[in-house]
């Protein structure tokens, strides 16, 4: 491709141009780097939103709709789940922290707080609410909803501080969970809804080793060599620009729709190992088992493991953050796999349609299936003081939490059309059809270790008073 051609190339977004320039300097980048720049990068990232500040990703006019935006009952039941945990964990009078990661418009937290308000003893036990949000625009939207438009705020090193309008409790916005101190006397209640699917993934494929034979000390590789099988290695899927004059169809599984702008980037397999391919797939026996099968593909999300480990340390304590008495809970709701490693799950979403994730960088939402087993593994590895329940289908979780009963209460006394809307909305959340939200979405809980004696409500257990 000649340089003049590249110089003249028109990019769909400023971010596309920046990505091209970065790749021209450093070479193809890992998929995770591409995702991070597209979602939360400074220049026109999808959530960091510098392209058009008035853009709203959520709702009918946006790109997607999430469960809390579909029905208020969703947030109410999640709030109730934490009330049940607070009751089961001896109703402390203070030290409760509510933490939400990736809070979107703030609707889920608002519905949770409205529910918790009805349990004054728990409401008064809350010290602070923390909102972990990468997007400045969404932090502002959340503050307007939870504290009131134009509510006063102060800035500290940790982030933005204001006061919630429902409980009158401090609400603190941080860009990462690391900015929230881990304190052994706190009872953290952490919720993550459609957060983990937005975290960048690495994709690896196993291939015959490109370099010299294994050293004699590497017994596992030597054993395979003895058996006549070639030594295998993990190669990483990297992102590089497409040719501006490409006429070939997009490689599967991504196909651009005719009305959509064409893919400006593509995935290519690295010709040898990379920094990430040498250590990430060695981090779990689940990946190691697949290495010898040529062509195996795995998606690995290191950020998901970091967040799961952080949640676990807050709840159960860790070597770095000892906690005399585990306490608190995390509830993770998202779409993904229960017991398999996600494969080819990266997708682009724009205006409620699946689109090529390599088109219009920064204007397309990117997400990937959540590997719930990897989250469970990271949590239990990080802390001996936690146990994991689920994942269970969202439909099971919400039905057990009483979605039918709550929706019925809301429809009573409502006008016919409003009642129909309420009915349609909650049924959508528990739809068990092949692509229904009740089946595709799942719930996983991280709780203080109790030898499996107490199952949480929504996962087959009752409230213990
Ligand atoms: C798909 S939206 C879900 C929003 C909300 N939980 C809901 O269900 O409506 C993802 C949210 O996570 C935030 N987010 C994405 N990546 C993030 C990151 N690395 N750190 C903090 N927040 C992030 C986005 O800005 C957005 O608020």
TrEMBL record:
UniProt enzyme class: transferase
Coiled-coil segments: none
Biological process annotations from GO: methylation; mitochondrial respiratory chain complex I assembly
Pfam families: Methyltransf_28
Catalytic reaction annotation: L-arginyl-[protein] + 2 S-adenosyl-L-methionine = N(omega),N(omega)'-dimethyl-L-arginyl-[protein] + 2 S-adenosyl-L-homocysteine + 2 H(+)
Source superkingdom: Eukaryota
Location in the cell: Mitochondrion
Record keywords, A-Z: Methyltransferase, Mitochondrion, Transferase
GO annotations of cellular component type: mitochondrion
Gene Ontology MF terms: protein-arginine omega-N symmetric methyltransferase activity
Main localization, broad class: mitochondrion
UniProt biased composition (Low complexity): 207-220
Function: Arginine methyltransferase involved in the assembly or stability of mitochondrial NADH:ubiquinone oxidoreductase complex (complex I).
UniProt protein name: Protein arginine methyltransferase NDUFAF7
Organism for this UniProt entry: Hirsutella minnesotensis 3608
